[in-house]
Specification:
heterodimer; A: about 260 residues; alpha/beta; Rossmann fold; 6-stranded mixed sheet; 4-stranded antiparallel sheet; 11 helices; B: about 280 residues; mainly alpha; MetI-like fold
Chain lengths: ~260, ~280
Amino acid sequence: MKEAPMEEILKTQDLKAYFEELEILKGINLSIPKNRVTAIMGPSGCGKTTLLRCFNRMHEETPGAHTKGKIFLEGKDILSMNPILVRKMVGMVFQKPNPFPTMSIYENVLAGYRLNGIKLRKEEAQGIVEESLKKAVLWDEVKDFLHRRGTFLSGGQQQRLCIARALAVNPKLLLMDEPTSALDPKATRRVEELVTELKEAVTIVIVTHNTSQAGRVADYTAFLYLGELIEFGPTEELFTAPKDPRTEEYLTGKFG
Amino acid sequence: MKEQGIALRLWKDRVASLVIFALALIPLIPLFLILFQLFSKGASSLSLHFLTSLPRPPGEAGGGVVNAILGSILLVAMASILAVPTGVLAGIYLSEFYDRLLPNMVRTAADLLQGTPSIVIGIMACAWVVRPLHHFSALAGSAALAIIMLPVIVRTTEEVLVLVPKEIREGALALGVPRWRMILQVVLPTGLVGVATGILLSMARVAGETAPLLFTAFGNPFLSWKPTEPIDALPLVIFNYATSPYADWWRQAWAASLVLILLVLFLNTTARLAARKMGGR
């Protein structure tokens, strides 16, 4: 798939991330193309989750964690912004589905508004709930019991509920941290299909340690190893003609 | 030979199970003895009249403990008003900032307070509240009870909130929710049943406290709603009646004990039911 030069939505400049003294990311320069799915893959401990968590400033929520460098979201350096404002533009889906246990499905979808003290008119709220659940391909399964707890759903449904919750506030960027690692193969497939559908509306960055998942869903792939960005490019190119021997070794299963 | 060895082991296993079962029943014995004794001695004096009348002077038949029942309820309620908001907020603080110096000091202080004899807390409430006001008062009693409740509420709130999964907190933060809203609207509701259980258990505990009330609430044979006046409480009535020389008052002490233990059992059972509801979710 050859295409015109990509439009980038997010760009990192010599991004370094630390836990205490330990350098997890060693100067990452990466551009995330707009309205595409970008996968970040690499072996366990390579820093891929840390990199993702830098994009919405969640990394620094861990005690002892800090970052250096720059991250530009549509040209603005998010590391010098208030994290709360960053997170309103950058949504996140976690490894383990985490619907809020005290809230109904309906309330979960609206959590981004309600927990931020934004009052919605009833029709407006209903519209957002329906639209978000439809985007997350969950509407047909839950439309008859929207006011039941989200925790009664299956793992795959819970994860799609979390995707709906993230989409409800119209983020520019959706981060997914190994979103299928807690799901069975069938639920995994549904989430993967969803990811490819969603890129029309939102840019997605997905972390995975599963190379075939990157191959299935991602337009672009970044390969991270020991805190360094080894290679980045269109998924097809990276998978068929890797430039770096380490990428090839990882893809052919020599390590990781 | 081999067959026999297994048979012997199975036999030993059965004996051991039986012994453990028998030993596990031992803790139940005192509880049932207490309940049995209280019912056999107190139930006969327990009547609607007893629950709704004021005490009468010795020698006069009848009389009840309505002043003490209402007094106990008022004391525990006022103590809760003092201890619940403070304790829950401190518990939230400890669960959110667990690894810093001040939280560690607060935690240690709470544990020490929990181990402080209640009579010492009573003396302190006497010095802090009774002396400045120049007389015994319900307020002083509630203050003493609140100090006893506080560490229990602090530590249970902390323990319950620490158990709220990290994923739930991060889920809220990732939506751009400020930390204080995350705590109040996501973390606290998630642990609410557990926090409520801790509060009920602490109320059950102080409902039976006697020592700190002796020189704070003091006791009062009349109905009183004024926080600044002395007030009666069930444990005080039991203490005063049981140490009196009148046989009629001894009977009433038994009945008051029965009322008190039923009240405490009610609070305890409610707390356990609430906890089970949380466990089932």
